[in-house]
Design brief:
- The chain is an alpha/beta fold.
- Helices cover about 30% and strands about 20% of the residues.
- It has 9 helices and 7 strands, in the order E-E-H-E-H-H-H-H-H-E-E-E-H-H-E-H.
- The protein has helices at about 30-35, 60-70, 75-80, 95-100, 105, 115-120, 165-170, 175-180, 195-205; strands at about 1-10, 10-20, 40-45, 125-135, 150, 160, 185-190.
- It is globular.
- The strands form 2 sheets. Strands 1-2-3-4-7 form a 5-stranded mixed β-sheet. Strands 5-6 form a two-stranded antiparallel ribbon.
- Helix 1 (about 30-35) links the parallel strand 2 (about 10-20) and strand 3 (about 40-45).
Length: about 210
């Protein structure tokens, strides 16, 4: 779910605060890099797959999951099942980089195809609030909410964001934001999308721009 607050200023759209709640990197992190007419002060990403992850439970999702796992990087699956666009299989990185049509491009992971505009837009944020739930069993691994993910060729080692190449080589501007003190790594309790009013008041309200 995407939301943002807008105002008109000098004929241009100014977006003070934006956010994405669940349902993947496809909307949340992407809009801040791809949509040139959106300019955020603060952006909140709550329980979002930033660098890949699993598929939700449920009958329809389990059917989709079966199709995805069979040939996740085939043209058919990539074109017809949206979650396949942000499914990153650590022991199949070559196909992920070559054939996955969304996430590797958005996160500037493909050598020789990195879009500096994405980094420039992302780096303009004054606050990036990344919220991870300790009991989340939908996002696998849960650290993807913080840009952490499995090490290449391993399902056993989860790297924190700061140890990934995306961060170290600053492909999207995450390191730039973090070193400037503009990234908030927030840890909450509860299951996926179990958002309490108290957590919202504590971790979101202080960063909202109201004027």
């Amino acid at each position: 779910m995407l939301w943002w607050r807008k105002e008109e200023a000098r004929g241009h759209k100014v977006d003070k605060n934006g956010g994405w709640w669940s349902r993947g990197e496809a909307g949340g992190g992407g809009c801040g890099r791809r949509w040139s007419d959106l300019h955020f002060f603060s952006f909140f990403l709550w329980l979002v797959r930033m660098v890949g992850g699993g598929v939700e439970s449920g009958i329809l999702c389990k059917v989709a999951d079966t199709l995805i796992k069979s040939e996740v990087y085939s043209d058919y699956v990539q074109d017809h099942l949206a979650p396949s666009g942000y499914l990153k299989i650590p022991n199949n990185m070559n196909d992920y980089l070559d054939k996955c049509k969304f996430l590797p491009k958005l996160n500037n992971e493909v050598p020789g195809e990195r879009n500096l505009t994405y980094k420039k837009r992302f780096s303009t944020l004054q606050n990036l609030v990344l919220i991870m739930s300790e009991q989340d069993t939908v996002l696998v691994p849960k650290e993807t909410s913080w840009f952490g993910y499995y090490s290449d060729n391993s399902f056993n080692i989860v790297l924190p964001a700061q140890q990934t190449k995306l961060y170290a080589e600053d492909w999207i501007g995450l390191r730039t934001l973090d070193e400037a003190g503009r990234v908030k790594f927030v840890r909450v309790t509860g299951a996926h999308v179990a958002i309490s009013d108290e957590d919202m008041k504590e971790h979101m309200v202080p960063y909202l721009k109201s004027n």
